[in-house]
Amino acid sequence: MQERQINNSIKGKLLSIVVMGMAPLLIVIAYLIISLLNYSKAYESIVSNLTVANDYNVSFKNDINEEIYKEIVGHADLKSQDEEYRIPENMIDTFQSDIAELMASSNENSRIWLQRLSNNLNALREKVLIIENNLENGGKYDENMNALNSDIYIITDLIQDDIQYFIQYQTKDIETLQAELHQRVIFFTIFWSVIVLFIVILALISSFKTVRKITRPLDKLIDATNRIADGDFESKVSIDSDDEIMMLADSVNDMSGKLNLLVETIKEDEKIMRYAELRLLQEQINPHFLYNTLDTIVWLVESNDNERAIEVVMALSKLFRLVLSKGQELIPIKNEKEHIETYLSIQQVRYNDILDYSIDIDKEIYNYEIQKLTLQPLVENSLYHGIKYKRAKGKIEITGRKENNDIILTIKDDGVGMDEETLEKLRKEITRKCKETDAGFGLANVNERIRMHFGEEYGMKIDSVQNVGTTVTVTIPAINFAINGGMDSEK
Fold it and tell me: Which of these ranges, 67-81, 96-110, 118-132, has the smallest mean pLDDT?
């Protein structure tokens, strides 16, 4: 199945809803905070300016007039003043410094009055310096008093007026700021209420669509998995999306297909096994072999060859005991060797004039496992289809060796053999399922049982040359019977 890629994950969809809802709200909150901070800063600046201006409005005129008067009448020593800030020049310098700071935080109208205030302070400084020079050069009391009354008092009155005008404009600035803030609050409330309402509606619509895109495919998946759980492995679900649910649906479809294939395979294998077991039982209890053996026993008894008759009866008993193998499917190779020895010993009594055999199975492989009745059908095939049609004495040779991790067993006869066409046909027949073939059923049965149990890489191979003979090679894995949990062979 070709895997499709996720282009729009559920996580991304949910995150987009959150962002869609939260981002505008965060923008609104940020804008509100910045606006409040700006208004707060502007309000604090105006209040600070008013505080400074009110301080000078209350005390500056009276204080500086008083200090200048004291200097004129001689109550203050300009050279030994303890409180230096009370010196008129220092008071003027301090005021000028404060005006410079007020200039930086005031609007244009307020700066006009601050500039006039600064000019009047400069004029006041010049008059104060004249009075101080007069005091240093002999007093000039009358001239100084005249300057105080006609110049100083007028300038300080002007300064007082400038301060009051500045305070008036600053008060108007507060009113303007309040009005602007009120208008902005109204605009902000209406505008952002509409925006937030639009965002909420948009978020609800988007959320509803996203939830439907998630829940509807999930409902389909639930329905499909319920059908699969009920045994409908051909059930498929079609999801038209590009998220994780699409991947999940593809996995469910893939799982359903594999389960269906697995179930069909198991059913087919069960049918094959039942059929093979039935045919195998039929082959195990070959009535012709039994009849012929019993006829041989009768013939031996009638010939007064009781000793050989007893040997055949005992061999037949042992043969059936080995065939049954206490119901085991896997037996040691030693047991299988005893089985074919017993089988051939019985057959040799009947076909004494045409049958000879040898068994050379390495004792090293005696304790490795093999499926029962693996060699007997092959030996029987060599006897009935190879040696018997030779119309002369023939020999069957059985060998067994271990090569690397495999067990190699061969059944070789010097019978009539097969031509190439017949050999190729038989090779094809034994690769088919035993229920699908009648020709060479015994060989196909053995080959299929080996491959089903040990794997496709194992099984049998047939080589034959006409009028020379046939060799069947069986390859199985070398698995120790005792380690694999089997039972010891019977003594």
Answer: 67-81
* pLDDT tens sequence across 259-313: 778 877 887 777 666 556 645 554 554 666 777 778 888 878 888 888 888 888 8
- Asked if 409 contacts 375 with a C-beta cutoff of 8 angstroms, the reply is yes
215: left (phi over 0), alpha (psi -120 to 50) or beta: alpha
What's the rounded mean pLDDT across residues 344-353? 87
Task: Specify the pLDDT at position 80.
Answer: 43
Q: State the pLDDT at residue 231.
A: 73
Q: What is the DSSP string of 304-325?
A: T-HHHHHHHHHHHHHHHHHHHG
DSSP per-residue string spanning 423-464: HHHHHHHHHS-GGG--TTHHHHHHHHHHHHHH-TT-EEEEEE
How far out from the chain centre does Cα 186 lie? 51
**What is the three-class DSSP state of 75?**
coil
Token pair, residue 211, equals: 């939830």
Average pLDDT, the chain: 79
Joined tokens for residue 302? 């009638």
Question: Is 417 in contact with 468 (CB distance < 8 Å)?
Answer: yes
Alpha-carbon gap, residue 384 to 326, rounded angstroms:
29
State the virtual CA torsion across 137, 142, 146, 149 in degrees, nearest 10: 110
Residues 171-195 have pLDDT tens digits of 888 888 788 877 877 887 887 788 7
Radius of gyration of the chain (CA): 60
- The answer to whether 128 and 89 have CB atoms below 8 angstroms apart is yes
Strands 394-403, 355-361: pairing is parallel
- Of the candidates 439, 441, 437, 446, the residue with the CA atom closest to the CA atom of residue 411: 446
269, 452 contact by CB (below 8 A): yes
Question: Among residues 475, 459, 462, 456, which one has the least CA distance to residue 405?
Answer: 475
Query: What pairing do the DSSP bridges indicate for beta strands 406-413 and 469-477?
Result: antiparallel
C-alpha 397/C-alpha 383 separation (Å) is 11
Beta 394-403 vs 369-371: how paired, if at all?
unpaired
Rounded Cα–Cα distance for residues 20 and 204 (Å): 10
Rounded distance between C-alpha atoms, residue 254 and residue 224, angstroms: 12
247 vs 474, higher pLDDT: 474
